[in-house]
Design a protein that fits this description.
Length: about 240
């Protein structure tokens, strides 16, 4: 009986000690919670690899097709270990060469605002520690990038910044908006934030129809031009 009583006492003491430690830990959590969350976010940015791209075929026959693949809705706007570096470059380009890389034609405002809404909803859901919705003293909602400290208005008049420019300052992807204009048969480039274009510039091609944008692509008109326009006309985006 003595051994049983001693064992019970020892177990009780151990439980009390563990309970006390647990209480102390719980009591200290509120002051440690935010720094720990910040540390995890920085670690993710340091180790998160870019999304792997499909390699080019090294052999076999090549066919002229649209090359469509289903988009993974969880990674279409990528935040990886290169984000901070690329963000700085994009901000510098928008500050020094904005007219060359960014244009929004009249009539594209609602479409660009829709793009901004789509991007913001994705970022705050996918990366809630990094992107947060905040409200100012004027009750205007904004999105805050906690990594860079930037805050962008999400309501008109956007404090003088086009909604598509906000998109360009939030993500690393270039964004183009296509719409039909003035009863034209083709979709046209009505808005663009293309900071890293290859072989073309926004200031030269804004307003061009899709066929003209791809006029230098071999076999475009003969092979896939009409199919591309039909696809753009019927495609619907769902997230």
């Amino acid at each position: 009986m003595l051994f049983i009583d001693v064992a019970i006492i020892l177990i009780s003491v151990m439980l009390l000690v563990r309970l006390s430690i647990w209480r102390i830990t719980v009591a200290r959590q509120p002051t440690q919670k935010q720094p720990l969350r910040r540390k995890r976010m920085e670690l993710d940015l340091q180790v998160s690899e870019p999304y792997p791209q499909q390699p080019f075929k090294q052999s076999g026959r090549y066919h002229m097709t649209m090359g469509l693949r289903r988009l993974d809705a969880e990674i279409w706007a990528i935040v990886d270990k290169h984000y901070t570096y690329e963000h700085k470059i994009r901000a510098d380009i928008l500050s020094s060469k904005k007219t060359k890389v960014f244009r929004c034609l009249p009539g594209s405002e609602d479409a660009c605002a829709e793009v901004l809404n789509l991007v913001v909803n994705f970022l705050i859901r996918k990366h809630p520690a990094m992107f947060k919705i905040v409200e100012g003293i004027d009750k205007v909602k904004s999105i805050k990038n906690t990594e860079t400290g930037e805050v962008f208005s999400l309501q008109r008049p956007f404090y003088g910044m086009e909604p598509l420019e906000v998109v360009a300052r939030l993500v690393s992807e270039d964004v183009n908006v296509l719409m039909k204009r003035h009863n034209q048969g083709e979709h046209c480039l009505v808005a663009s934030a293309s900071l890293f274009p290859v072989g073309w510039s926004v200031e030269d091609r804004i307003g061009w129809p899709v066929s003209q944008l791809h006029g230098t692509v071999p076999l475009w008109q003969e092979k896939i031009g009409p199919s591309v326009e039909r696809y753009i006309a019927i495609v619907r985006v769902k997230f």
